[in-house]
Design brief:
The chain contains 5 helices and 10 strands; from the N terminus they run ααββαββαββαββββ. It has helices spanning about 5-20, 35-55, 110, 140-145, 170-175; strands at about 95-100, 105, 115-125, 130-140, 155-160, 165-170, 180-185, 185-190, 200, 215-220. The chain binds the ligand Nc1nc2c(c(=O)[nH]1)N[C@H]1C(S)=C(S)[C@@H](COP(=O)(O)O)O[C@H]1N2 and molybdenum atom (MO).
C-alpha cells in the first residue's frame, strides 16, 4: 500500500468513526433535530482540515496503461446524459474572476495553443464506481501562473454550463496532475464528458472534476459546491 492509499484509508476510517459514534451518544436529540446535522458538518470540516494538512503536493496519483482504459467510459451528472449541455466551441469563452491580474476571457483556440500534458488516470465517484481514462490538457497551475492568479489564495472555484459548481484548495490546484482537460482519448471532449473544457484532478473524487467549465475564480471566500453544499465532503481526496 502506498502512503497515499494508507492516508485515504485513514480519512475514510475517521469519517466512518464520526458517523458510527452518533447512535451511542446523545446527538440525536429529538428536541433539536439539527444537532446531529451540525455535528456531522463539524466533523466533515475537521476531516477537510486533516486531509489538507496531510496532502502532499508532490505525491502523484497512480497512472495506468492504455489497455487498462475503461471502454466505453461512464457518464455521471445530476441529470440524464440526454440533458448534457452543448456549448458552442466557436463562441466559447472561459471567464476569469476573483484574485487574478489578467482577466480577459480565453477562447478555446487560445487554450489549445498552450503547452499540454496527457495522463491515463483513474476517476472514482462517491457512488462507488471507477473509470480509467486518458485526458489531455493544460496544467491548471501553469494556467493560474500565466494569468497572474494570486496563488496564496485558499480556493479555486469553477462554474459550469449546466449550473454545476465546485471548488478546490490551492495546493491541489497547483498539483502537477491537475489539468484543464481539452481532450479525452486524444479527441476533443464531447458534450456529456465536459466539452469544451473540464477540470481533471486525479487526486480527488469524481464530483471535484467539474465538466463544461465556463468560469474559474481565485478567492479566499469559501465557494462550496453543488454536492458539497448537500453534505459531500469538500476536500474529497481520493
Ligand atoms: N458540470 C458538471 N460537472 C460534473 C458533474 C455534473 O453533474 N455537472 N458531476 C460530477 C460527478 S459526481 C462525477 S462522478 C463526474 C463524472 O464525470 P464523467 O461523466 O466524465 O464520468 O463529473 C463531475 N463533474
Ligand atoms: Mo460522482
Amino acid at each position: 500500500m502506498t502512503n497515499f492509499n494508507r492516508r485515504s484509508m485513514l480519512f475514510r476510517a475517521l469519517a466512518l468513526g464520526a458517523v458510527s459514534t452518533l447512535p451511542a451518544c446523545d446527538y440525536e436529540d429529538p428536541n433539536n433535530p439539527d444537532l446531529a446535522d451540525k455535528f456531522l458538518h463539524a466533523m466533515s470540516a475537521w476531516n477537510d482540515r486533516v486531509q489538507a494538512a496531510l496532502f502532499n503536493p508532490h505525491t502523484l496519483a497512480p497512472t495506468f496503461r492504455p489497455d487498462q482504459i475503461t471502454n466505453p467510459p461512464r457518464f455521471n451528472a445530476f441529470y440524464d446524459i440526454s440533458q448534457a449541455p452543448v456549448v458552442d466551441p466557436a463562441s466559447f469563452k472561459l471567464e476569469l474572476g476573483g484574485q487574478i491580474q489578467d482577466k480577459p476571457p480565453w477562447t478555446l483556440a487560445a487554450l489549445n495553443a498552450l503547452p499540454q500534458t496527457a495522463q491515463i488516470t483513474r476517476m472514482t465517484c462517491v457512488e462507488g464506481w471507477r473509470v480509467i481514462g486518458e485526458w489531455e490538457g493544460v496544467p491548471l497551475g501553469d494556467f493560474l501562473r500565466r494569468i497572474g492568479a494570486d496563488t496564496t489564495c485558499k480556493y479555486v472555484s469553477f462554474k459550469c454550463a449546466d449550473g454545476y459548481y465546485s471548488s478546490i484548495d490551492m495546493p491541489s490546484a497547483l498539483h502537477p496532475q491537475t489539468i484543464l482537460a481539452l481532450k479525452f482519448l486524444q479527441q476533443p471532449l464531447t458534450p456529456p464528458f465536459g466539452a469544451p473544457i473540464r477540470l481533471r484532478i486525479p487526486t480527488k473524487l469524481g464530483h471535484k472534476n467539474s465538466k463544461s467549465v465556463v468560469q474559474i475564480a481565485v478567492t479566499n471566500i469559501y465557494p462550496g459546491g453543488y454536492w458539497e453544499d448537500q453534505g459531500y465532503n469538500w476536500f474529497s481526496g481520493s
